[in-house]
Design a protein that fits this description.
Radius of gyration of chain A: 31 Å
Order of helices and strands of chain A: EHEEEEEEEEEHEEEEEEEE
Number of domains of chain B: 2
Distance between the termini of chain A: 32 Å
CATH class of the largest domain in chain B: Alpha Beta
Helix content of chain B: 25-40%
CATH superfamily of the largest domain in chain B: Thiolase/Chalcone synthase
Structural class of chain A: mainly beta
Largest sheet of chain A: 5 strands, antiparallel
Oligomer: heterodimer
Strand content of chain B: 15-25%
Strand order of the largest sheet of chain A: 7-6-5-8-9
Strand content of chain A: 35-45%
Chain lengths: 313, 356
């Protein structure tokens, strides 16, 4: 068995999210150094404010400014900050009930060490230097021993309110393709295409995924297929993909390699795009150092009869 | 269609349970390669084939391993052709079981295969789980799963509901019990270790690992034919709390209590409880919410502190409770599953065996 293959995999996306009216007012407020809550019909003030009452599900929109000072309701000391977290030096995670609010906001507290933090500690907002309308406009909280700040009585109406935010997300993985696909990739490195046969229905899957999707049993018997095959169906691509150095139009085809019971797909070259047809016999073209065939080209053999590949369309 | 009479709700039971040996890494296997032996095991216990199963439902999350559509690839291990009646939830498998239970209740099917799997090893699960949080106010701060559990633990300490030695004892008891569980990942004497996020230490946190589980449900007489002592689901319910952590009382779990009430858990005492508490502090919350006294055997399997394949660990609680009934070690058991930060969403099932 070949060694386990591994490769780094980064999944990253800048999520663009629209805001409801309450969320918009709250985040716009942070940009303007104003903290807003929302009043429920039973008179509680929720900070951070939400669009719907978490108890009654009622739509709520009565905005009220609260103070940038408050009290820690629980905390946890993080001695090893992780990527993306608000501070790069050790800090406390805190839930803070701001003065004038009935619920607590999750954020971080900049403190010299865990001995300086306790539930009941008085804290105040430290604003970020550059603010865009995001929860991170609060850089962090810091200990504060003064009087509660007086909220300014802001109405929650702003001249230039935010309508959306961009929230980047990134997760890092180490990808391992598993036994069957590792064996497939390993064989490809020697320019051989190796599928696996189902012990029950005898079909040969290329590329193999380790299980027969029809029978639900493990495939294990390795079967070398190809290198030649038959175009079973195809399409003509007329749109140039970003970062892809291939002239359009070109043909992308399903190819049933000889001995395989599942068609794989690849580009067809070495023939004008409008002459590619079902039944065309093709073979792989490798380029130096490539991990898989660059494309497939005609072999010059007579076309395969429809009967020979009709189950593989 | 079924042969059961229409009067009253149908009796539905867990008739078989299987799980992998949970491990820190299964990098030599793809997800379907990891899952398939468990599917074959659970089918073999009942003698059923895929074609005999009325409904199939699974739970998993592509975010764990970073593989798009991994749940469709996992279906290869079921053998889904000719097309089967199938569904998937992006949740722990306990919620897939709930969906299957409702499907059987309707009479549309007599048997169901429920499975779930989680591969935590390719990524950093404590960071991956930040992506389930409020994307506007919380996720941009990247508060990892251990940090949020630590906030809850500190709230419990402040309220006087527990202390650090009591938390350490929860972990120690779990891993000690897990020595009798061949599937567990972390067993025996494990050092309590340093703070990961204070007040939680290494020993208060679950091991990170990969694994899969599957159960088969069957209704009425079918269940009796497939299993010597079916674990009848007497009640099952799930409830969710507000997503805002600062809105909730983190020292309590009203959603667990309500789900338990609706599942009938308080009607008579249970002898066993399998609680899905990935952090030692969460067992403290659950014991209080469920009013479990010292007479109840809690997590004889070792629980999630001994093996925590995310997305499967909740289904495993139901499976472990059922297996205990199957082998006559329990007559009435409670199984609990959780999802989200700080026990945000909770499912409770009450299982019973026929009188002996």
């Amino acid at each position: 068995m070949p060694e386990v293959l591994k490769a780094p995999l980064v999944v990253e996306f800048p999520f663009t999210r629209s805001l409801g009216p309450v969320q918009s007012a709250f985040l716009t407020g942070l940009r303007e150094r104003v903290v807003l809550g929302v009043r429920t019909t039973d008179g509680r003030t929720l900070v951070p404010p939400v669009e719907y009452d978490p108890v009654t599900a009622e739509e709520i929109h009565d905005l009220v400014e609260v103070a940038p000072t408050g009290t820690v309701t629980t905390w946890a000391w993080n001695h090893a900050p992780r990527r993306g977290q608000p501070l790069t030096t050790p800090f406390a995670w805190v839930l803070v009930r701001l003065d004038g609010a009935d619920t607590a906001l999750l954020h971080v507290l900049d403190a010299p060490g865990p001995d300086a933090v306790r539930t009941g500690l008085r804290v105040r907002v430290r604003w970020a230097g550059e603010r865009t309308g995001a929860i991170t406009d609060i850089a962090c909280f810091e200990p504060y021993d003064g009087d509660p700040a007086r909220p300014g009585g802001h109405s929650g109406a702003f001249e230039d309110p935010l309508t959306g935010i961009v929230a980047p997300a990134r997760l890092d993985y180490t990808y391992s393709p598993g036994r069957a696909q590792s064996a497939y990739i390993d064989a490809l490195s020697a320019r051989r295409t190796v599928g696996e046969r189902c012990p029950s229905c005898r079909k040969v899957y290329v590329p193999p995924r380790g299980a027969c999707p029809t029978c639900g049993v493990a495939t294990a018997e390795q079967v070398e297929v190809g290198p030649r095959g038959t175009v079973t169906t195809f399409c003509i691509v007329n749109i140039k993909a970003k970062n892809l150095d291939i002239e359009v139009p070109y043909v992308y085809a399903h190819i049933a390699l000889d001995g395989a019971d599942l068609a794989l797909h690849a580009r067809i070259g070495g023939i004008p795009y409008d002459q590619v047809r079902m039944g065309l016999r093709v073979e792989p073209v490798w380029t130096e150092g490539a991990r898989h065939p660059d494309h497939y080209r005609p072999t010059g053999e007579p076309d395969a009869a429809y009967e020979t590949y009709k189950e593989l369309l | 269609m079924t042969s059961e009479e229409a009067a009253g709700p149908r009796d539905i039971a867990v008739v078989a349970f299987a799980q992998t040996a949970h491990r820190r890494s299964t990098q030599e296997s793809s997800e379907v390669e990891m899952l398939m032996p468990v599917l074959h095991d659970v089918l073999a216990q009942t003698g059923l084939r895929t074609a005999d199963i009325g409904f199939t439902c699974s739970g998993s999350s592509d975010y764990l391993a970073g593989r798009a559509f991994s749940f469709t690839l996992a279906l290869d291990g079921v053998g889904a052709w000719p097309p089967i009646s199938e569904s998937h939830v992006e949740m722990d498998g306990a919620w897939a079981l709930y969906e299957a239970w409702t499907k059987l209740l309707t009479g549309d099917a007599d048997t169901a295969l429920v499975y779930s799997y989680g591969k935590c090893s390719p990524g950093s699960v404590r960071d991956v789980l930040t992506r389930q949080l409020d994307p506007y106010y919380v996720a941009p701060l990247w508060p990892d799963a251990i940090a949020l559990a630590a906030l809850q633990a500190q709230a419990l300490l402040d309220a006087g509901h527990t202390d650090e030695p009591a938390l350490a004892a929860v972990g120690a008891r779990s891993r000690s019990d897990a020595t009798a569980n061949p599937h567990a990942q972390l067993t025996g004497r494990v050092p309590q270790g340093d703070y990961v996020v204070r007040p939680l230490r290494t020993g208060d946190c679950p091991p990170i690992g990969d694994g899969a589980a599957a159960v088969i449900l069957a209704a009425g007489e079918r269940a009796r034919r497939l299993c010597e002592r079916p674990a009848w689901i007497r009640g099952i319910d799930h409830r969710v709390e507000a997503h805002g952590l600062g809105v909730r009382d983190l020292t309590d779990s009203p959603s667990t209590r309500l789900a338990a009430e609706n599942a009938g858990a308080f009607e008579r005492p249970v002898d066993t409880a399998e609680l899905h508490a990935p952090f030692s502090s969460q067992e403290v919350v659950l014991r209080r919410a469920l009013r479990l006294d010292d007479g109840v055997r809690v997590n004889p399997s070792g629980g999630a502190l001994a093996a925590n394949p995310v997305m499967a660990a909740g289904l495993i609680r139901i499976g472990e409770a059922a297996a205990r009934i199957h082998r006559g070690a329990s007559d009435r058991a409670l199984a609990h599953a959780t999802s989200g930060p700080c026990l945000q969403q909770n499912l409770v099932a009450v299982l019973e065996g026929d009188p002996r």
